[in-house]
Design goal:
The structure is a homodimer of 110-residue chains. In chain A, the strands form two sheets. In chain A, strands 2-3-4-11-6-9 form a six-stranded antiparallel beta sheet, with no helix packed on it. Chain A is globular, with a radius of gyration of 14 Å. By secondary structure, chain A is mostly beta strands. Chains A and B meet through β1, β4, β6, β9 and β11 of A and β1, β4, β6, β9 and β11 of B.
Chain lengths: 110, 110
Amino acid sequence: MKISNYHDVEPVEEIEGIFKREVITADDGAPNFSMRVFEIKPGSSVPSHSHPWEHEVFILSGQGMAVGKQGTTPISQETVIFVAPDEPHCFVNTGNEPLRFICLIPLQQK
Amino acid sequence: MKISNYHDVEPVEEIEGIFKREVITADDGAPNFSMRVFEIKPGSSVPSHSHPWEHEVFILSGQGMAVGKQGTTPISQETVIFVAPDEPHCFVNTGNEPLRFICLIPLQQK
C-alpha cells in the first residue's frame, strides 16, 4: 500500500499557470489508470483540447468554469466531471485562489 | 461532458456506517474505470478485505487509519493511497467527523 501526501510530489509546470503532480502512476504498480493532482493559478486555464482518452475529475477547491460542447458550466469544490474520449474540454480558473482538482486518465496516455 | 455535484447521487449503505456514491460509472460512458465517493461514519471502518483489482484513493476530509501489510498508517485530508491488486486493506475512521474519500476502481468490478 503506497500512502503519501500529494504535496510530496514536486509539481511540473508544463503549461504556464498549470501545476501537475502525478501522484499514482504505473511506477507505483498501477495497472490501469493514473491519478494526477492539478492546480490552476488564478487567471489561468487549461486550453481547449481533446484526445482519444477520458478524464475523470473531482474538484477539490476553488472556482472555475468547464467549457465544452455543453457550453460553459460553473465548477467548484465537490464538482464531479466526466470528459468522454475525443470530447473538447477547457477548464478556467475564475476565482482568486488556485483551482485544485484530481484528474484520472487510463494508462499509456499523457 | 457530465458535470454534477457528488451529493446529487443518493448514497448507498451496503455496510453499516459506510456510505457509497457511484459518481462516474459505465452508464455515463466511462470506458475504463469508475469513481465513487465514500463517507465512513465516526467509529466505523471498512473491514479488512482484498480483491484482484486495485484502488486509487484520495482522502477529502476527516481522520483515520489505513491498515495493511505495511502496518497501520494515519490518513487525513490530501492523503493519496494506492492499494495494489490482492492486497489486504482496511480503512478506519478514528475522528469525530465523517472520513470522506474518493476511490476509483477498474470497470467490471464492484
